[in-house]
Amino acid sequence: MGHSVLSLSVPLFVIFMVIFTKRVALSLFSGMVLSALLMTNGHLWDIVLYIYHKIGAVFYHTTPQGVQLNLNSLFVFGFLIILGILSQIIAASGAINSFVQRARTYVKNARQSEGIALFAGLVIFIDDYFNALIVGQISKSLNDAHQSSRERLAYIIDSTSAPVCLLVPISSWGAYIVGVMQNEGSPLLKDSFALLLSSIGCNYYAWFAIFAVFLTIVWQINLPAMQKYQNVGVKDFQKFDLAKRTQNAPISVLLLSIITLIMSITTLIIYTGYSASDHKDLLSIFQNTDTAFALFFGGLFSLGSGAILAYRYLPKKAFPSLFIKGFKSMIGAIWVLILAWAIGPMIRDDLQTGLYLASLIQHFQGVFLLMPLLLFLISGFIAFSTGTSWGAFAIMLPIGAGMVSVVGGDIVLVVAAILSGAVYGDHASPISDTTILSATGAGCSVQSHFLTQLPYATLTAGCAMIAFLVASLTLSKAIGFLVGLGLLMGLFYFLRCAHSVR
Predict the structure, then answer these.
(1) Alpha-carbon 157 to chain mean position
(2) Can you give 94-136 as a three-state secondary structure string?
(3) Is the separation of the CB atoms in 461 and 369 below 8 Å?
(4) Which parts of the chain register pLDDT below 70?
(5) Over the stretch 199-253, which tens digit does the pLDDT of each residue have?
(6) What is the pLDDT of residues 143-164, one digit of tens each?
(7) What whole-number distance in Å separates Cα of residue 432 and Cα of residue 425?
(8) CB-based contacts of 111, cutoff 8 Å, min separation 6
């Protein structure tokens, strides 16, 4: 399938299904059925077996030694359940009520509450999963209190997860990218860490995505999709009735629970990387971290701590019902994540969509001035179609280096274009795990998050494309940055004015 246009059929089908049905789980499963029809002889039993093996691979894999559990997936699912339970315990204790009551004396409007979410997203940069889930827990109640929709919060979370991780080389993302470039063996990618550092300044999409969030908050820009889809499927929005409880837990229960969660997970992330690395420098540590392990066991420790802190403020025998409610609150997100992780290998490995898209760029090798723009587009579509920017990195970085070695060009700008495009595709994709987890962290539906975020991300990507084109034509990365940023500010100012007129 890697040489056939049919390799595009499944991702395009899923994307159209999400847009028109607004049901992500149904769209993903329908895409899996279509993939099974393409990859098998069409017999019902073969289709069932194919789908079963792909879903099963999320949970286990077979080796010569026997069946082994896929612990990474199970740890992430376990952490989501832990997070759901911890959220229920803290809410039931009244600590969130106390926090909202106190915060209202300092945070007066949605602009300020969303600003806190933006700040939290900027400082939690170690890992995108960690960022997406924790920022929601920090910001959700405060944003609810000021009538900021969950979809806006999900957009803020998503725009400060992958983009921030990409701009900070000492993160799981930076370590992975350096590893990909080192393993490629190309002379142009030999000084991988220095090359990654050099590319940060012209990683236009990542910078513009963060700046777009800032403008959206400061100018309170609500595009039509964001106005249409507000708190879709949200059942716990604005349930902070401060008069109902005679005794609310103090704010310390909430703050200590969140601090314990952040510190325990961060400590375990660094510890797992330190234990598994031969060289004890920071880059080696982040290359060998086990984020899923750290999330689960750090979350488990935090759940125990939070339960102890909240115990005296909860009714007797409340814990069983809170555990059940917390588990149920995460079932939808886990189901969508299972389907997304199952369909990803179908698109990437069986249909080879990324390889097909990458092969298209061979027809443009002579147009070296357009190379960054083309690489941005191809990388973006690969990540959008497959739901993974890391897969796009692995496919496109060697191709970009090969093209520069043949036709010339600026390797720094080429690397930045590939990284930027892949992050945009991941940011905008309905089957990306960060899209799913950002919606989960914010507490809104995946489909409403996808539909509301896509216009913002695409406008930002358009400005980044212009920036790459200008940088290529002028041979100046700074001019490209200023032109793209100016265009972004102009567009968002126009949207602000148009919104105020309405």
Answers:
(1) 8
(2) CHHHHHHHHHCCCCCCHHHHHHHHHHHHHHCCCCHHHHHHHHH
(3) no
(4) 1-3, 125-127, 130, 170-172, 184-186, 236-247, 361-368, 406, 499-502
(5) 899 999 999 999 999 999 999 888 888 988 888 877 765 554 444 545 678 888 8
(6) 887 888 889 999 999 988 888 8
(7) 9
(8) 217, 218, 220
Identity (one letter) of the amino acid at 353?
A: T
Mean predicted lDDT score pLDDT of the chain: 83
As given in the structure block, the two tokens for residue 44 are 């019902």
Listing DSSP states for 172-236 in one string gives: HHHHHHHHHHHHH--GGGSSHHHHHHHHHTT-HHHHHHHHHHHHHHHTT---HHHHH-SSTT-SS
Distance CA 270, CA 345 (A): 29
Q: How many CA atoms lie within 13 A of 338 on its CB side?
A: 22
CA neighbours within 13 Å on the CB side: how many for 342?
27
CA-nearest of 144, 78, 82 to 442 is 144
Residues linked to residue 68 through DSSP beta bridges, in sequence order: 61
Helix (H, G, I), strand (E, B) or coil at 68: strand
pLDDT tens per residue, range 448-494: 999 999 999 999 999 999 999 999 999 899 999 999 999 999 999 99
Burial of 67 (0-12, 13-18, 19+ CB in 10 A): exposed
- Of 300, 291, 477, 335, residue with least CA distance to 23: 335
Q: What are phi and psi of 68, to 5 degrees?
A: -125, 135
- The two tokens of residue 104 are 């209202």
User: Angle formed by the axes of helices 150-159 and 433-442, to 10°?
Assistant: 140
pLDDT of residue 156: 92
Partner residues linked to 61 by β-bridges: 68
Q: What is the pLDDT of residue 241?
A: 46
What 285-292 contacts at long range (C-beta under 8 Å, 24+ apart), as own/partner pairs, is 286/170, 286/171, 286/172, 286/174, 286/175, 287/175, 287/176, 287/178, 287/179, 289/127, 289/172, 289/175, 290/72, 291/127, 291/129, 291/130, 291/172, 292/71, 292/72, 292/73, 292/75, 292/76, 292/79
Max intra-chain CA distance, the chain:
73
**Structure token digits, residue 272:** 């797992």
